[in-house]
Fold each of these.
Amino acid sequence: MERGAHWGAPFGYRMAGVRKLFFLIGLLSAAWASEPVTVAAASSLRTPLRALAARFESETRTPVRLVLAASGKLALQLEKGAPYDLYLPANPDYLKALREVHQTTPVARGTLVLYLHPRTGLVPNGPEVLLRSEIRRVALANPALAPYGQAAKEVMQRYRVWDAVQEKLVFAESVAQAAGYAAFAADAGWIDLQSAKKLPGRFWRPPPESHRPLVYVAALLRARPEAKAFFDFLQGEEARRLFAEHGYLPP
């Protein structure tokens, strides 16, 4: 009996340690298994939002799921009841039709450019270059769904080339898709500055007064603590720094 007691005590301690270890693992698993913060955002915010989501996850252990698409397409999904926690369109007008918005804040401002593929051999000094015969296809995000597409339409109307280039337009679902078209299949494209800087061609920036501002606004749609924490995170110094690093202007 004494020998059994001698070996049983250490074994009991070991079992207690194992149970404690599994308990701690369970707590960590529960933290990571919590419902993610679902963020619906304009596709042009893909790069900075991925960096912000990763930073937020590392600091809070709260997962973030990004749904990236055209602002207008996401608005239609929200109208049909999509359960997104936050919505970040490139135009605050899309928030007007939403039934429940707890808080909003502008977080960044984007830049529209006219990009030309190198094979054209042309210099983009304005929308008039789209009238040249060397340019047969012009990529453009659908103006009915994407703020960048609407802004591009406004610029072309202002410079009186909209009607003349109708047959050349290739509509994309979002500005990110338009950038993909411009990189390969199209000769020109109205895309965001961040995408244009990654491509080998040249680009032209329209004057700010030629179209409505491309202001990204964060809207808190579900007042969950985790969602509110990410909403607050987007207003912090670290978020402003990351937006600036990726070429976005202050709102």
Amino acid sequence: MVREISAGGVVVRQAGESWEMAVIEPQTENSARPARKTSKKAVLALPKGLVDPGEKPEETALREVREETGLVATTIAKLADIKYVYVRSWGDQQRVFKIVSFYLLRYESGEIDDVSREMRIEVRRALWIPLEEGPRKLSYRGERDVVRRAQQYLKSHSEV
């Protein structure tokens, strides 16, 4: 089985008395077509990507956030490693064992969805949503769990 190591982040910023988080809507074959009234709800995910050779997972998380959302962030803490198996829907159709390290990141600068033309192959759009809605709106269970960890961290670390 093929193995992949990735990293990503839960980017947060203060919005008055609450928190917002950055999410992406990945580009899919279906998302390139005009939406119909009967279309499924959008897939929302955390920004993440493969760790490059010589790169540390934390560096990957910051790079992927910048590339996929347009935001510059700093690391607050590591949240979790999630593990899962998927079957590639392209090329060789191989089963892949994937580990993704997720970090809690603080927004520093940048405009959400300021994404390069090259990245539009991967990302349809990036947007802010209320952090409290993350566990309901994210499409993948492991990522919903990571957001719950981010919420717990922020509640127990008022200095953030």
Amino acid sequence: MAKKRELKNLISNGFLSQIKWGESYTSLFLGAVVVVVALVLVFSFIKSRNAQTGQTGSTSNEQTANKLPETYTVKQGDNLWTVAEKLYGSGYNWVDLAKANKLQNPGLLYIGAKLSVPNVAPKTPTAQNNTLQQTNPITGTSYTVVKGDYLWTIALRAYGDGYKWVTVAKANNLKNPDIIHPGNVLKLPR
């Protein structure tokens, strides 16, 4: 009976109040507990962040194709370019993701959708010799569209870089850059 009363007193008065430590030792002990908890939280955050991005202590460019997950779940703010950067370390692999998932509109992804991840090597951009620009260049600050033209080929001929089609589209306030008609006069910013 006396032991039960002693245990009740120990529990009701609190464990730390029963230990006859000075104030400095109590503060030291509680400080150490706070540091340990903070370290555990930091390490678990780092571990979850690396697991979320698919990294295991190496940069995403070092990630090889054989370490890829089989599927990827689309998150808010994802597009094929950013997903390819996360998985392959190169956004240029968005084409592989679109092809493997038979996406009719690669610009439209739904949150929560599962994408199959093809086991391909990361793509890197390469400089190519542009024969179209060399044989039929556009040198002026404007261009009249002819049948069969696309913004890509116009930018390739004018700048030597097809990706500059965006610059041409913005300079001409094109709402739909896929639609240009023969006879349209486009400004080509230089």
Amino acid sequence: MKLVPTFRLLLLGLWLGAALFFIGVAQTAFAVLPSRELAGAMVSRTMAILNYSGLGIAFISLLTSMIAPVGISRFSQWIDRALVAIMGLACGASQFIVISWMMFSVRAQMGRPIDEIPADDPLRMRFDALHQYSEWLMLAAMIAAIVAFVIIAMRRPVPVAKKNVIDNLDFQKQFKI
């Protein structure tokens, strides 16, 4: 039964690695690409992949959390599930509410590249605030995933005491001579 927790650790670890890699890719894109528009498009596309994979991994991890070895604390199971749900909810909120719905709407209203919009323009200020929300949601998802990873990795099943089990090879106990 050690296979399921190991599989869950693998999924969470892969997603955390991708999230950390994304941070480097985003910074590099804005430093290397010739325009911020191109960098923003690349980061937006990569962020969508990260958010969708976070949703999928959270769903799979929640389903596989139902297969738990005997002797695992129910409290730690529910904390683990809550943290994985927070990860999935943060990824979903980031992708479907903040990025797809709000940020794209604000960008469409701007009508020109974001670098041409003054910093004190209400649309630019709203875009910057939405970008900040997106960062906070990603941070929340990453923290929840890290804590869930640690809880799963540190979990040790408590041995269940056997009650009135007769050893089939010990004849003295079976026949009480």
